[in-house]
Specification:
CATH architecture: 4-Layer Sandwich
Largest sheet: 5 strands, antiparallel
CATH superfamily: PPM-type phosphatase domain
Number of helices: 6
Helix content: 25-40%
Structural class: alpha+beta
Distance between the termini: 5 Å
CATH topology: Phosphatase 2c, domain 1
CATH class: Alpha Beta
Number of strands: 10
Order of helices and strands: EEEHHEEEEHEEHHHE
Strand order of the largest sheet: 1-10-9-6-7
Oligomer: single chain
Strand content: 25-35%
Radius of gyration: 17 Å
């Protein structure tokens, strides 16, 4: 398997600090973005703790490749770190991670950051948003009265009790392109624009710089973090 990857994180134009973090290890094929949950103190600590914990786990040669187990480990560490630091309520972060190997790709996901696959001139969203609106629609209930809370996160690292991540396996082919992004990007960049810009370049860094420029042109109201992975050989 041959991969080319690039990542960036950007504070944006409005926020006073960056609560996003990312993890990238091209050699072992693990990539993740994390976004501290808005409105809950300690988001920056939560996302950084999740990513540092992930790095320690996946770079340990004795650790089995188990994305679901990695999520459990991050959940415990984020939850315990918040308590140890004296936060009155849990610290919290989203996590959107892919583990790639020659047989395919495993998505492990909590929250509303996005995972996308670009293939054969099409873009497909692999992740599902864990928020009030999505879960209300899944129950067949109306969303017109949800108001401001419709986009409130319902699953995240750091929550009390066990977490239930989306764990899903996908096939992987040469020339696939995988994009992970926090909502600072996905709120501002239309998937059709992402597809167009992806098809216009063979450089993951160039793609991300173009997408970042679009976000800044539209106000960059939130932190922006993204990873682009180009699959040269599956």
């Amino acid at each position: 398997m041959k991969l080319r990857a690039h990542a960036f994180t950007d504070i944006g134009k409005v926020r006073k600090n960056n609560e996003d973090s990312f993890f990238l290890d091209q050699d072992i094929g693990v990539f993740a973005v994390a976004d501290g949950v808005g409105g809950i103190p300690g988001g920056e600590l939560a996302s950084q703790t999740a990513m540092s914990t992930l790095g320690e786990i996946v770079r340990d040669s004795t650790t089995a490749r188990d994305p679901a187990g990695w999520v459990d480990a991050m959940q415990q560490e984020v939850h315990q770190t918040g308590r140890a630091k004296g936060y009155q309520q849990t610290i919290a972060t989203t996590i959107t991670m892919v583990e790639m190997d020659p047989k395919g790709i495993t998505l492990a996901h909590l929250g509303d950051s996005g995972a996308f696959r670009i293939r054969d001139g099409r873009i497909e969203k692999l992740s599902e948003d864990h928020n009030v609106e999505t879960e209300t629609l899944a129950k067949g209930l109306p969303i017109d009265r949800l108001g401001h809370y419709r986009f409130a996160i319902t699953r995240y690292l750091g929550m009390d009790g066990p977490v239930e991540p989306q764990i899903k396996r996908f096939d992987l082919r040469a020339r696939d392109r995988i994009l992970l992004a926090t909502d600072g990007m996905t709120d501002l960049v239309d998937p059709r624009d992402t597809l167009r810009e992806s098809l216009a370049t063979d450089d993951p860094k160039a793609l991300l710089e173009t997408l970042r420029a679009i976000c800044h042109k539209k106000g960059a109201h939130d932190n922006i973090t993204a990873i682009a992975v180009f699959v040269d050989e599956a």
